[in-house]
């Protein structure tokens, strides 16, 4: 700390680029700690299909439903039924996963 001629005490202020600096009005991950344990439902839409009820009732284990998407096309990622991103299907250790490629900004 330093004291000017007026006797006012000045404290060192964090400057942009310094560790721990948060610009006024911006939130950090620590500010969101209260919601870290709130469960959300994540859905990924691989594709859609229109199927008559009669065909649906004839389906059994192993039935194949053709979707309207092609391999390599983007998939939509929803959080609590709200579109938040687009991504691509990836294979990780013989399991399907999704990698986000585009975040959708709220309108």
Automatic annotation (TrEMBL):
Gene3D superfamilies xrefs: SpoA-like
Compartments, record wording: Cell membrane; Bacterial flagellum basal body
RNA-binding keyword on record: no
One Pfam family cited in the UniProt record for this chain: FliMN_C
SUPFAM superfamilies with a match to the protein in the record: Surface presentation of antigens (SPOA)
Protein family (similarity comment): Belongs to the FliN/MopA/SpaO family.
Protein name per the record: Flagellar motor switch protein FliN
Species in which this protein is naturally found: Devosia insulae DS-56
């Amino acid at each position: 700390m330093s004291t000017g001629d007026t006797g006012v005490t000045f404290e060192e202020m964090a400057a942009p680029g310094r560790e721990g600096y948060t610009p006024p009005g911006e939130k950090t991950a620590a500010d969101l700690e209260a919601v870290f344990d709130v469960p959300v439902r994540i859905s990924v839409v691989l594709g859609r299909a229109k199927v008559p009820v009669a065909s649906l009732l004839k389906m059994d284990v192993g039935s194949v439903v053709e979707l309207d998407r092609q391999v390599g096309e983007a998939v939509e990622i929803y959080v609590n039924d709200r579109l938040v991103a687009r991504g691509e299907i990836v294979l990780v250790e013989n399991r399907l996963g999704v990698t986000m490629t585009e975040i959708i900004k709220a309108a």
